[in-house]
Design brief:
- It is a single chain.
- The protein contains 13 helices and 15 strands.
- It has 392 residues and is α/β, with parallel strands linked by helices.
- Helix 1 links the parallel strand 1 (6-11) and strand 2 (32-38).
- Helix 4 (76-87) runs parallel beside helix 5 (102-113) and helix 8 (186-196) packs across helix 11.
- The protein is globular, with a radius of gyration of 22 Å.
Length: 392
């Protein structure tokens, strides 16, 4: 029987989960209805007393009330709930990151590979932003030439001590699996690799709890090496205000800068490599012109609403996904490699050894001073039900 509406279940009613529910109830997602909600916090469920409510994700998945689920729980549950849903014939849209570490990404992706008929997407909503769409187009079409350097300073993720105290799972290895790289930066890391490709090696310096009373990273600077010899720098922290968000990409044909809502292309009239080889001048530079790049639409795109619309249309009409969840492994691998590099003092070659990093993370959890030892086994093994503190 042909489906004309998708009954979407929301698992986790924290900040993001409740926003997703509102979008559906406000009718912002065509051909989508709220099938059910799930959270272990009864106080959060009371707000949705007129909806079908579950305190257990496994029960919701098997209830027959939903065709698809959107997972907005603490990070580790993205993997186990996602696998449970896929194995029970339910389409999956997961919040970022798709998993905490690469090995779990591989497990989740394997579950989808076993059920390719199901739609499996990730909430990389910034892929709908016209600025990043245009940058990707300019890079992919060769308008920027061969990439030489990338640089993203993304330090406007300022977070307070009150933020970190707002949930027991926050900023712990067992609850969140990392800090700024796993919580705030998955979007940036996804866009970075989506536009520029994956590096071949990473060397990072960073610190855990440098500016906050937390056990995970709140400051990282990473050097990226690309297969073609290009280099990149990624700088982030949750301790800097007002902070900066500046993406700069240099190719042989010029330089792109995205900052403050504007995209500027400084274009070489002659590609730099050709000019260097052909000019007789010792100190000459290519002539340039500067373009304030026009965008397809004003603003920042449809963001979360656009991803949910696309997910629903993929289920109903086979629309191509904006953010296939399989691609989510790349941002996780970048975050894992940066953490492993600065914590071990090593240059990390990619692809990352997923088993090696998983063992490293287990050691961090075992040594945690923030999480009671009796909760660790449950967090590492991760039963398929949603039975931990909710919220993003």
């Amino acid at each position: 029987m042909t489906m004309d509406k998708v009954r979407l279940g929301i698992i986790g009613l924290g900040n993001m989960g409740s926003a997703h529910v509102k979008h559906i109830l406000d009718g912002l997602i065509p051909n989508c209805v709220l099938g059910a909600v799930c959270d272990i916090d009864e106080a959060k469920l009371k707000k949705y007393a007129d909806q079908k409510c579950y305190a257990d994700s496994a029960a919701m998945i098997r209830s027959g009330d939903v065709d698809a689920v959107l997972i907005a729980t603490p990070h580790y549950f993205h993997t186990t709930i996602g696998i449970d849903a896929l194995e029970n014939g339910i389409h999956v849209l997961t919040e970022k990151p798709i998993s905490v570490h690469k090995a779990d990404c591989e497990r989740l992706i394997a579950a989808h590979n076993a059920h390719p008929e199901l739609v499996f997407a990730a909430m990389f909503n910034q892929r709908t932003d016209p600025h990043y769409l245009k940058i990707r187009q300019l890079v992919e079409t060769g308008e920027l030439g061969e990439l030489r350097r990338t640089n993203w300073i993304i330090t406007d993720w300022f977070r307070t001590e009150a933020y970190y105290r707002s949930g027991g799972w926050r900023a712990t290895w067992a609850g969140e699996g990392g800090g700024v790289l796993l919580n705030q930066c998955p979007h940036n890391l996804d866009l970075f690799q989506w536009i520029c490709g994956m590096p071949s090696a990473i060397t990072a310096i960073g610190a855990v709890g440098k500016h906050h009373d937390i056990e995970v990273e709140d400051e990282v600077t990473a050097l990226l090496e690309y297969p073609n010899g290009a280099t990149g720098v990624f700088v982030t922290t949750t301790s800097e205000a007002p902070g900066t968000n500046r993406l700069e990409i240099v190719g042989t044909r010029g330089k792109l800068v995205c900052e403050g809502g504007k995209l500027i292309f400084t274009r070489n009239e002659i590609p730099m490599d050709r000019f260097s080889a052909e000019t007789s001048s010792s100190f000459g530079k290519p002539e340039t012109w500067t373009i304030d790049v026009p965008l397809s639409k004003p603003g920042n795109g449809e963001q979360h609403i656009g991803i949910k619309k696309n997910f629903v249309n993929a289920i109903l009409r086979g629309e191509k996904l904006i953010a296939p969840a399989e691609e989510g492994i790349h941002s996780v691998e970048l975050a894992n490699a940066m953490i492993y590099s600065f914590m071990t003092g090593r240059r990390v070659e990619l692809p990352l050894d997923s088993a090696l990093y998983e063992e490293h993370l287990k050691r961090l959890i075992a040594d945690s001073r923030f999480v009671k030892k009796e909760t660790i086994a449950a967090d590492v093994d991760m039963s398929t039900s949603y039975n931990n503190n909710a919220g993003k």
